[in-house]
Specification:
11 helices, 79% helix, mainly alpha, 221 residues
Length: 221
């Protein structure tokens, strides 16, 4: 049995989670501090969460196309994400970002506003409040956001197949190998990968519960 889809899936998911970690936390903080633009930005950052994955893949395909301005820029500097594992990272980042953003934003919104108000009264800058108060107090929610984002990136299918393709040993993830096996009538192979993804998903959810519970106990101690 070829385990390259597992390695490719993990490689893409880890890379996408690393990107969404920084982008999602910063976006949650920025939107929380926004006033008039908050509803618009919140809807914009949450949009990939409700879009069909194929629609997300279509937009990314157009964005990275060499006929587009961004695609031409990437080609000029020697980057071509289409039909490469890098394209899979872009696709996984796009669909998992809203998970990181919304979960982190929810964690920030549950903070006691009097603590932040007291920090402002003491003269702390907004950035120091963000790094020294908001992030440490929101660690359980941020940890859950990271784990859920990784799980979302690990199981991505629609956007990945459109942007990265389904190339065995290069861009074929676990979700794609299941699709390919079913298309070829190889139900045994598909079932094997279904069991692997099921086991990984159960482990990820268990890990999330353990991590958030430990963080919560530390805060209460």
């Amino acid at each position: 049995m070829d385990f390259s889809p597992l390695l490719i899936s993990c490689k893409i998911a880890f890379s996408a989670t690393l990107i969404t970690f920084f982008l999602g936390i910063f976006a949650a903080w920025a939107v929380g501090n926004a006033k008039r633009a908050r509803p618009f930005l919140d809807a914009l950052f949450s949009l990939p969460l409700v879009l069909p994955p194929t629609v997300a893949g279509f937009f990314l395909l157009i964005l990275f196309s060499r006929n587009g301005a961004f695609g031409k820029f990437l080609s000029a500097i020697g980057i071509n994400p289409l039909f490469t594992w890098g394209g899979g990272v872009f696709a996984a980042t796009f669909v998992s970002f809203p998970v990181m953003y919304r979960t982190t934003r929810g964690a920030f919104s549950q903070l006691d506003p009097t603590i932040i108000a007291a920090a402002r009264t003491l003269g702390m800058s907004e950035f120091r409040i963000f790094t020294k108060i908001m992030i440490p107090l929101s660690l359980p929610g941020i940890a859950a956001a990271v784990i859920l984002s990784f799980a979302r990136a690990l199981g991505e299918f629609g956007a990945t197949i459109m942007v990265a393709g389904n190339l065995p040993g290069k861009t074929q993830t676990m979700a794609l190998v299941i699709y390919t096996a079913m298309q070829g009538g190889n139900k045994k192979l598909a079932f094997s990968w279904v069991l692997i993804i099921f086991a990984l998903s159960a482990i990820i959810l268990l890990l999330m519960n353990v991590v958030t519970e430990r963080f919560s106990k530390r805060r209460m101690a």
